[in-house]
Amino acid sequence: MAATGYIAIMAVGMFTTGHVFNITYGDPNMVRVLVFFEVAMSLFAIFMARRIFGRWDCGYGLIDWRGALWMLPNFALAAALFYAAFSTGNPQLSGFVLLIVATMVLVGFSEELVFRGILLQGALRDVSLGKAILISSVGFSLLHSVNTLAGVPIDSMFEQLGLTFIFGLAMACYALRANSLVPVMIFHMLWDAVQFLGGVFGSDFGPLINIGIVLNAVVALVLWVVDLRKRRFDAA
């Protein structure tokens, strides 16, 4: 219910962006519209988390710093992306840049809370670890299907579904390893923000984005195998 409601709000936001304001997905100006929907989605996510789990963090506890070490390559990648954004582009501080950052903070917070928080932890109550990770990843992937309402071509949308499914798998594994949503929220914020800022600055990321995709696919696969084997061993 929480994920469905969240996707519905996003769909309205994308429709409004593309059909009311005629702003195509990928145009940085879309944040001028989406920021209002992101505020609504963040409040909705907090409300649903507290309603279902009684707390905003969906039952996660203190950060397991040893488990969080799996995310170090991602934060190194984020640092490289920001370096590329500022060194190869024309960075300028403006109200619009701050709006982009604020919007991406809301995106990272609310999407992780819904899909790696509410949906993943909720699924773990009823199904196995592997199935719960798949459910949360499929839900996160389907969220991006509504981007077609803001002008994303169908073929590009299917590509997004595949990439976001991989991203969802990785973030779910990281969250469970770290026993916290905080690291994945921070990385999600950085990942989205640097790409939008790079578009505004005219930056050249070279192969870094593709490296990030491959990195998370590999790490997600490793953690998937390790965690599933550990769960089977513990069950035995």
UniProtKB/TrEMBL annotation:
Name the keywords, alphabetized.
Hydrolase, Membrane, Metalloprotease, Protease, Transmembrane, Transmembrane helix
> Locate the CAAX prenyl protease 2/Lysostaphin resistance protein A-like domain: which residues?
95-194
Membrane-spanning residues where? 7-25, 31-49, 69-86, 92-115, 127-146, 158-176, 208-226
Q: Which GO molecular function entries does the Swiss-Prot or TrEMBL record give?
A: endopeptidase activity; metallopeptidase activity
* An example Gene Ontology biological process: proteolysis
User: InterPro entries recorded for this chain?
Assistant: CAAX_protease, Rce1/LyrA-like_dom
Give a yes or no for keyword Cytoplasm in this entry: no
From the Swiss-Prot or TrEMBL record, give the protein name: CPBP family intramembrane metalloprotease
